Amino acid sequence: MTAAAPWSSYVALGDSFSEGLWDVLDDDALPSPDLSAWAAANPHAPESRLLRLRGWADLLAGHLADRRPEGEGLRYANLAVRGKLLPAVVTEQVPLALEMKPDLVSIVAGGNDILRPAVDIDAIAGRLEAAVVELRGAGSDVLLATGVDSRGAVLISSTRARVGIFNSLVWSIARRHGAHVVDVWGMRSLGDWRMWSADRIHLLADGHERVAQAALVGLGLEPDDAAWDDPLAPLDPAPARERLAADSAWFREHAYPWATRRLRGRSSGDLRVPKQPGYLTVERRG
């Protein structure tokens, strides 16, 4: 028998990883935030027309709602905004979450900071720990996450050592303050590029669902799918010429625009608002 979830409210904080890109499946069987206000505030975004920006945090909310007592849904909000650095998450999103008094908060950030070579890992970990202390002191359970293992990834594999150090600090913070951790680094399935979008940074539908299952495990709950981290059947290696063409397209369409924004002091999250800034009720299914 599946254990009940003790949380009646959940708020997700962070960057694009928690905002949820690019799972836009048209599946009414799964809960999705009402994005009409977000779309109105972000008319320049192509995905605002889809109104199905759903990621692992949204899916986790659905899984937790399913484990609520019959007749009781889960109040859920998602304040995460793509491109945000960890200090901005702490200063802009944590105070809002504290006002909402949630039973559970996930705060997953630091990936954008670590992409910058001059990052001070200890400093950003210190900011994260201060936020965890504040949230725990307010009575919220906290869910953290490790970074993704970038082994074998083009260019960003250079950040692997920094991510490893940050992960160690995340585990230590969790131990000191009784927080939970999603072990994203340890997920074997995420080493498969079929889990990732064309930008090689954001997950697709299957990847989001697997991280949601990992989050259940991190919270001490049984996963809904026992095979949640089983790797996909391997594919034959692509020809070198095909890999080179794919790498060139990725650099032209994704890496170069990201670098250009950074040089101009801009972020993909500029002028954006959270997709679900207030509580909605995710109903139990079945």
Automatic annotation (TrEMBL):
<protein>
    <submittedName>
        <fullName>Putative secreted protein</fullName>
    </submittedName>
</protein>
<dbReference type="InterPro" id="IPR053140">
    <property type="entry name" value="GDSL_Rv0518-like"/>
</dbReference>
<feature type="domain" description="SGNH hydrolase-type esterase">
    <location>
        <begin position="12"/>
        <end position="210"/>
    </location>
</feature>
<dbReference type="Pfam" id="PF13472">
    <property type="entry name" value="Lipase_GDSL_2"/>
</dbReference>
<feature type="region of interest" description="Disordered">
    <location>
        <begin position="267"/>
        <end position="286"/>
    </location>
</feature>
<dbReference type="InterPro" id="IPR036514">
    <property type="entry name" value="SGNH_hydro_sf"/>
</dbReference>
<dbReference type="InterPro" id="IPR013830">
    <property type="entry name" value="SGNH_hydro"/>
</dbReference>
